[in-house]
Design brief:
Elements (H helix, E strand, L loop, with lengths): L13 H10 L2 E7 L6 H11 L8 H6 L6 H12 L5 H17 L2 E8 L1 H5 L5 H19 L2 E9 L4 H11 L8 E5 L11 H9 L3 E6 L5 H9 L5 E4 L7 H10 L3 E3 L1 H6 L11 H6 L4 E3 L4 H4 L3 H11 L4 H13 L5 H17 L1
The protein binds hypoxanthine and zinc ion.
């Protein structure tokens, strides 16, 4: 792969840089599909499925999107996901995301889904996976987006529950490329899922995990050393441990950073105090992502644009972050090279 930065970077500033952030091709590697459910779609699906919502209307629901921490968000997020019942619902949710992603010039997306929050309500694994996988196939035809799915285990549930979820998904193994670990981080360390992730490794699944969002830097190390993950989701608490920062940079372990999420869930006080610029400067393979865009105030381009406004990041960093999103993705090298060439072309034309 050729990773030679374009020559004209210093000339791209101000409005030109802002425009380029929006139009440059990029991959999104950290988006929970249930976190893309917009309030309007939640109400549509609730009506369609006869699900009662504890909110009078869309505005009342939106007003509930003020979060004190990760758990206060998760309570609202799981309640919103309760409207999903049929294969068509999962398909509609994912197609709505792909339309937004296409508008943001996303060319590749690795999309998380949380099957346990649906199977616990009696929805079959096949209903979830068939709906989402059909949307991924359609995304290619409709938007030219290459998309794949990552099955996340809910870490507040037991190891046995995670194993049962893996069993239920294995007949549909071809429909997802990897596994992840999300939900309430504190008190649910990576070690709890060591055996599940070892089994996933034997099955040839890619492995990622949320670590160092609210939890300590030690959870990032455990995700690497015990779960053998290839990427860390969030990972921003690594800044508490300079040795770990050096390790992440040295080994080029990707971090899927979600700046607007971190502000909304009070992981950082303000965007101006976000460690992303420091992580990039330290040589860490960071990427920018939206996490749960319907809840956190913006899709991936809003994350790029707002973060570049708040932090000392320039065109060289924009190139690095987009290039990282391809380098960190679970695709063959030829696809990475093709998208990086398209990135070079976008910079050359800027
Ligand atoms: N952290 C943990 N679990 C999640 C998140 C998050 O940011 N979003 C959806 N599930
Ligand atoms: Zn997340």
């Amino acid at each position: 792969m050729r990773f030679a930065p374009p020559a004209n970077l210093d000339a791209i500033t101000g409005d030109r840089l802002q425009a380029l952030l929006r139009t440059m091709p990029k991959a999104e590697l950290h988006v929970h599909i249930e976190g893309t459910l917009e309030p309007e779609l939640i109400f549509d699906l609730a009506r369609r499925n006869g699900v009662a919502l504890p909110y009078a209307d869309v505005e009342a629901l939106r007003t509930a999107y003020a979060f004190a921490d990760l758990q206060s968000f998760l309570d609202v997020y799981y309640a919103g996901a309760g409207v999903l019942r049929t294969e068509e619902d999962f398909h509609a949710m994912a197609m709505a995301y792909f339309a937004r992603a296409a508008a943001d010039h996303v060319v590749h997306a690795e999309v998380f889904f949380d099957p346990q929050t649906h199977t616990a309500r009696g929805v079959a694994m096949a209903t979830i996976l068939h709906g989402l996988a059909r949307a991924c196939r359609e995304a290619r035809h409709t938007y030219g987006i290459d998309a794949s799915l990552i099955l996340c285990f809910l870490r507040h549930l037991s190891e046995a529950d995670a194993f049962a979820t893996l069993e239920a998904a294995l007949p549909l193994r071809d429909l997802f490329v990897g596994v992840g670990l999300d939900s309430s981080e504190r008190g649910n360390p990576p070690e709890k899922f060591a055996r599940v992730f070892a089994r996933c490794g034997e099955l040839g699944l890619h492995r990622v995990a949320h670590a160092g969002e609210e939890g300590p830097a030690a959870y990032i190390e455990a995700a690497l050393d015990v779960l053998h993950v290839e990427r860390i989701d969030h990972g921003v608490r690594c800044v508490d441990d300079p040795t770990l920062v050096a390790r992440l940079a040295g080994a080029q372990i990707p971090l899927t950073v979600c700046p607007l999420s971190n502000v909304k869930l009070r992981v950082v006080p303000t965007l101006a105090q976000h460690p992303l610029a420091a992580l990039v400067a330290a040589g860490i393979r960071a990427t920018i992502n939206s996490d749960d865009p319907a809840y956190f105030g913006g899709y991936v381009n809003a994350n790029y644009v707002d973060t570049f406004r708040a932090l000392p990041l320039d065109a060289r960093d924009a190139y690095t972050l987009a290039r990282n999103s391809f380098a960190a993705s679970f695709v063959e090298d030829s696809a990475k090279a093709r998208w990086t060439d398209a990135l070079d072309a976008a910079f050359a034309a800027a």
